[in-house]
Amino acid sequence: MDYSILQVLLIFIVTFIVAIDQFSFLESLYQPIVTGLVIGLILGDVQTGLVVGGTYQLMTIGNMPVGGAQPPNAVIGGIMATVLAITLDLEPTAAVATAIPFSILGQYAVTLIFSLMSPMMTVADNYAHEANTKGIERINYLAMGLLGLIFGIIVTLFFIGGAAFGAQVVAVIPEWLMSGLGAAGGMMRYVGFAILMKVMLSKDLWGFLLAGFGLATIIMASPALSGPALIILAFIGFAIAYWDFQIQTKFKTSAVSSGEGGEEDGI
Amino acid sequence: MAYNIPETYKDLTPAEQLDDKTLNKMVWRSLFLQASFNYERMQSGGWLYGILPGLKKIHKDKDDLAASMSHNLEFFNTHPFLVTFVMGIVLSMEQNKADIPTIRAVRVAAMGPLGGIGDALFWFTLVPITAGITSNMAINGNIAAPFIFLLIFNIAQFAVRIFLMKWSYKLGTNAIGILTENAKEFTRAASILGIFVVGALISVYGATKLDVQIPNGTTNEVRQVTTIVASEQDVSKYDEFLYKTNDDGALTDEFQDGAGVTVLDSGDYEVIFNQYQEKEVFVDIQEILDGILPQAIPLMITVMLYFLLTKRGWTPLKCIGLILVIGLIGSGFGVWPSIWP
């Protein structure tokens, strides 16, 4: 399929902006659910853009930049998944899985920028010693521009290349590979869940994981509740968490007061 | 060039209170906390960029400004959405010209606990819930979904940023005490909510099913046949289906189960009998698993990945590689049918 210069340019600009947005600015424009719609709009297939964006978003839930960790990059992944789905007519799930290599490339690009900016801090130090506020501002703008540029170039190259050669490549890919990629794409979200568990789950909290799982399974058994299931579950989870907070703080204050011989804990 | 950061500022008279305009400007700049993120100082460049408007107003003496900028360019890392809380405290201390080592200690103390709280609030609670609901809307083709997501997320983000900036600046150093007093309990409660939601997500979004059918012999399937014939001779064609056989193999007068002949009003004969067909039987593994525990496979895979991440020290990338291999191998053997709902 042929695409106009304008579309290539728009893809570059969108990538440039959302690449910066993944760390700075609104930190929400880069989410696949948003980029899916925007890329779909540029390529003239809003419906596919929405579906792919939503599908990719589900996969990246939990796969967030938690604690400075670098998950496979949702910016390049989300954009490329939409581009692939529209230009090559791939199934949304297959497109999401095919975009994984690109998202890993994005992860490398981020690592590269974060490493490159480390020595720049010496320059920043010198600006600070001279009270050069303009210099500090310039370094920040430069870093953002660099990040946007690298991402923009990667995506634009693959967009042009993908539109030209991608179709032939996809025709060669056997059926089992595509269905396998689709299956793997559906399982990627478990990695995100496992990472969340790694950050939050201490030994004494296992029960809450199982409680959430069990209640969700019950609620999902009723088709009418499958839509609002997560809101209902959040209510229940909040009740448990809030109750725990009250008990824990009460324990602490009663421990303090009993240490002083106080008899007013009233339990 | 050796530069030593002094212990105290030259000008020790407290500066004027920062006006709302400057505070709002810093809230805006706080969006770019991670602009020059790097592995050495992490967010320090963006942090300094964020508080510069305030520092310029506070430190009229150029040497003081240089000292303040220099110590604020030290290692800094906190949660991007909660950074204005640290900003407010540090600025109130800068404004009162506190000792530089004190400001530094408070800055480090304040930035630490925020990481877990912010992750729990935003990445573990707000984003999974809003993104989860809106992605399902998007998959169903609802064009409003991305906008709803952006709206909810950013209203929450700006409310938190603006509120924390004003609140912590007003409270100054006391604010740290209020939050850190119950920080451990707060983080624990937030983790409980988070982990509860993760458990729910595994069940709600787990969509991996097995498509393994194990052959389990054959069975006779009964099919009822009803025909209408015109004469008694025609009925006798069906004798072998209608009547039981005796031990010698000869037909008896007794009807088989479910068989029968009725004379209709039109004079035709309605013949009803059962035909038996051999059919292969399969055991559906997914059906058996659902009988034990629905969504057992998503739970098992997630827990397995969790142990690989924690006990084996696997990177997320390695886990994704494993998932790809499982997916491809499983697909080669035809194990995965409908992965997506």
TrEMBL record, chain A:
<keyword id="KW-0762">Sugar transport</keyword>
<keyword id="KW-0813">Transport</keyword>
<feature type="transmembrane region" description="Helical">
    <location>
        <begin position="96"/>
        <end position="118"/>
    </location>
</feature>
<keyword id="KW-0598">Phosphotransferase system</keyword>
<feature type="transmembrane region" description="Helical">
    <location>
        <begin position="176"/>
        <end position="197"/>
    </location>
</feature>
<feature type="transmembrane region" description="Helical">
    <location>
        <begin position="204"/>
        <end position="221"/>
    </location>
</feature>
<feature type="transmembrane region" description="Helical">
    <location>
        <begin position="227"/>
        <end position="245"/>
    </location>
</feature>
<dbReference type="InterPro" id="IPR050303">
    <property type="entry name" value="GatZ_KbaZ_carbometab"/>
</dbReference>
<keyword id="KW-1133">Transmembrane helix</keyword>
<keyword id="KW-0812">Transmembrane</keyword>
<feature type="transmembrane region" description="Helical">
    <location>
        <begin position="139"/>
        <end position="164"/>
    </location>
</feature>
<feature type="transmembrane region" description="Helical">
    <location>
        <begin position="29"/>
        <end position="52"/>
    </location>
</feature>
<dbReference type="GO" id="GO:0005886">
    <property type="term" value="C:plasma membrane"/>
</dbReference>
<dbReference type="InterPro" id="IPR004700">
    <property type="entry name" value="PTS_IIC_man"/>
</dbReference>
<keyword id="KW-0472">Membrane</keyword>
<dbReference type="Pfam" id="PF03609">
    <property type="entry name" value="EII-Sor"/>
</dbReference>
<protein>
    <submittedName>
        <fullName>PTS acetylgalactosamine transporter subunit IIC</fullName>
    </submittedName>
</protein>
<dbReference type="GO" id="GO:0009401">
    <property type="term" value="P:phosphoenolpyruvate-dependent sugar phosphotransferase system"/>
</dbReference>
<keyword id="KW-1003">Cell membrane</keyword>
TrEMBL record, chain B:
<feature type="transmembrane region" description="Helical">
    <location>
        <begin position="185"/>
        <end position="207"/>
    </location>
</feature>
<keyword id="KW-0812">Transmembrane</keyword>
<feature type="transmembrane region" description="Helical">
    <location>
        <begin position="105"/>
        <end position="131"/>
    </location>
</feature>
<keyword id="KW-1133">Transmembrane helix</keyword>
<feature type="transmembrane region" description="Helical">
    <location>
        <begin position="321"/>
        <end position="340"/>
    </location>
</feature>
<dbReference type="GO" id="GO:0005886">
    <property type="term" value="C:plasma membrane"/>
</dbReference>
<dbReference type="Pfam" id="PF03613">
    <property type="entry name" value="EIID-AGA"/>
</dbReference>
<keyword id="KW-0472">Membrane</keyword>
<dbReference type="GO" id="GO:0009401">
    <property type="term" value="P:phosphoenolpyruvate-dependent sugar phosphotransferase system"/>
</dbReference>
<feature type="transmembrane region" description="Helical">
    <location>
        <begin position="292"/>
        <end position="309"/>
    </location>
</feature>
<feature type="transmembrane region" description="Helical">
    <location>
        <begin position="143"/>
        <end position="164"/>
    </location>
</feature>
<dbReference type="InterPro" id="IPR004704">
    <property type="entry name" value="PTS_IID_man"/>
</dbReference>
<dbReference type="InterPro" id="IPR050303">
    <property type="entry name" value="GatZ_KbaZ_carbometab"/>
</dbReference>
<protein>
    <submittedName>
        <fullName>PTS mannose transporter subunit IID</fullName>
    </submittedName>
</protein>
